[in-house]
Specification:
alpha/beta; about 350 residues; 2 domains; two-stranded antiparallel sheet; Rossmann fold; about 20% strand; 11 strands; Dehydroquinate synthase-like, alpha domain; homodimer
Chain lengths: ~350, ~350
């Protein structure tokens, strides 16, 4: 078992990483504040893993909220179902919520934990690779609003995260690949050695080898934890984590959310960010080529779908990372070295958008 | 003008207290983070004071959300109206929310500020005495749920509080008296000299003398700030602030919320807490008599309405201060000296409940 300590002052917490950790009572019980527990999960994940969690919680009052599966349910109304369940079963301030599922379950359970009786404890058991390497660290919780994604939320750190590599065997291939996109991102922004390791070990990862997965998750969480610890409230280096995301959000918005997975849009977005970095002279041709090769081997897109350039720029400008109307982008000076800039010449951005669409 | 500094580490903020502060641009403008402002108020307060606030914000983008007036609107649905307004008018993370109204407006505006884009700044301009001496300090924000009051919320500190004593002249007498109940509470739990000052100056307070009001608000906020600074997340001494509240919440719940004002229920609850303190031998007869006299002069109830004892105890057990099923109460060892206990003999509690109902 690997362990990453996320060090956020008085809110230090561990991420446990390895196969078959899910039902391990010894990992769960030290992080329960009382014998009251509420497991928040969804109707896809519950049949697979809920019984093992319950067995590990024997002796506790365990209530369960199984939400419908899908980003379209990440709303205040669905969060209200969690409050209903907690109040109906008389959960006190000392209760512990357990998020068992992917990013949507984690975000909503975390938001309910942040706001139930002004904040209760929670433990995350992410069941997708994306949630294991992304939502595990950073304390972002929240729900969507009809006028914008993640517009209602709070920062709330979990007591512990349990990232079980064995559960990834039941994850659909596309979702697994979407998680790999974020893993690749960590190498790109902060760790050239890790990027090289990914190039050498992609086959083992795709075969869901536990040792390779554990190492990849450990490195990803450690890199994110290091960045978040430097910048908990997202004012500086934390923006590195958005590599590929401003392009990616525009792709998701243009297509309607749900057609491409978030990780797929980020994959194409990262390829676009590296192409743009090359155009403005920060990178030579080798880095974009290595990324394209790696994304291709992971069955991830390298090109955006066809979107008119003006619409693409307009959607990028609507992203909430925009400050005072200027598009801020995360670009690379080298693999492992990210830079935030709002001074990209428009002509170069247009050239990237034209070059990096499928079929062009 | 009086000023209390609430010192919560990196979240230090001032409370300005005195007559005619409401429209003072010099108090507001240093606490705005950008030129975007959203004033959250209600339809009762807006006609009285909104124009003066707007005049003090000239040069800013000022949006206004006027909520319906009343505790029954303190819901997630109403909070959602604030999110709608913020998103429709494209408020950024750097916006500042201003709560103009009583406790309900302050709690909802604070909750929206705590959760809009994972947290934005807000300023409180409380227009009731209760809100000035209670919600001004402590960072508690939230909304009610059909199954319990304040069950959904967050801790979120304002940038500043402006407590204008002149606005209390438009406050209905019953609401003013309800605020006085909380002022009396501060004397009881932590400051015998202030309690004596209240005995000597109740007439001036009831006449809404600005100097007397300023002193009473200043002492109340200073006592609460001192307690909250010791115990920001409510694990220890902060529970003192609940003197009378476990009894009071049971009274409110038994009657249906809205029949008695919160401060009225707390007044009777404090009288019950002192009666119980006397029964278990912690107080002699003098302190409950002094309290009953002072509450009477402030036109506040000293006895609970008629409620069956078993129902009363059941409602007290449902209060969220209950830990592991035991009723925790704040009682007094002397005026100015509160103690938290969960070891009150049931027979004494029953005796207090039987003795302290109107008509018994």
């Amino acid at each position: 078992m690997q362990k990453v300590e996320v060090d956020l002052g008085d809110r230090r917490y561990p991420i446990y990483i390895g196969p078959d950790l899910l039902g391990d009572q010894n990992l769960l019980s030290p992080h329960l504040r009382s014998r009251q527990v509420c497991v928040v999960t969804n109707t896809t994940v519950a049949p697979l893993y809920l019984e093992r969690i319950k067995a590990a919680l024997s002796g506790c009052q365990v209530d369960v909220v199984a939400l419908p599966d899908g980003e379209q349910y990440k709303t205040l109304e669905t969060a209200n179902r969690i409050y209903d369940a907690l109040l109906t079963a008389k959960h006190h301030r000392t209760t512990t919520l357990i998020a068992l599922g992917g990013g949507v379950v984690g975000d909503m359970c975390g938001f309910a934990a942040a706001t139930y009786q002004r904040g209760v404890n929670f433990i995350q058991i992410p069941t997708t690779l994306l949630a294991q390497v992304d939502s595990s660290v950073g304390g972002k919780t929240g729900v969507n609003h009809p006028l914008g994604k993640n517009m209602i939320g709070a920062f709330h750190q979990p007591q512990a995260v349990i990232a079980d590599t064995a559960v990834l065997r039941t994850l659909p291939d596309r979702e697994f690949a979407a998680g790999i996109a974020e893993v690749i991102k960590y190498g790109l922004i902060a760790d050239a050695d890790f990027f090289r390791w990914l190039e050498e070990n992609m086959a083992a990862l795709l075969a869901k080898d536990d040792a390779a997965l554990s190492l990849a998750i450990e490195r990803s969480c450690a890199i994110k934890a290091d960045i978040v610890a430097q910048d908990e409230k997202e004012t500086g280096v934390r923006a590195w984590l958005n590599l590929g995301h401003t392009f990616g959000h525009a792709i998701e918005a243009a297509q309607g959310y749900g057609k491409w997975l978030h990780g797929e849009a980020v994959a194409a977005g990262m390829a676009m960010a590296l192409d743009l970095s090359k155009r403005i002279g920060w990178l030579d041709a080798e880095a974009p080529e290595r990324l394209a090769d790696l994304l291709g081997r992971a069955n991830l897109p390298v090109y955006a779908p066809a979107i008119a350039v003006e619409q693409f720029i307009s959607l990028m400008s609507a992203d909430k990372k925009v400050l005072d109307g200027k598009i801020r982008l995360v670009l690379l000076k080298a693999i492992g070295s990210a830079v935030i800039t709002d001074e990209v010449p428009r002509a170069d951005l247009v050239a990237t958008l034209e070059a990096m669409q499928a079929g062009t």
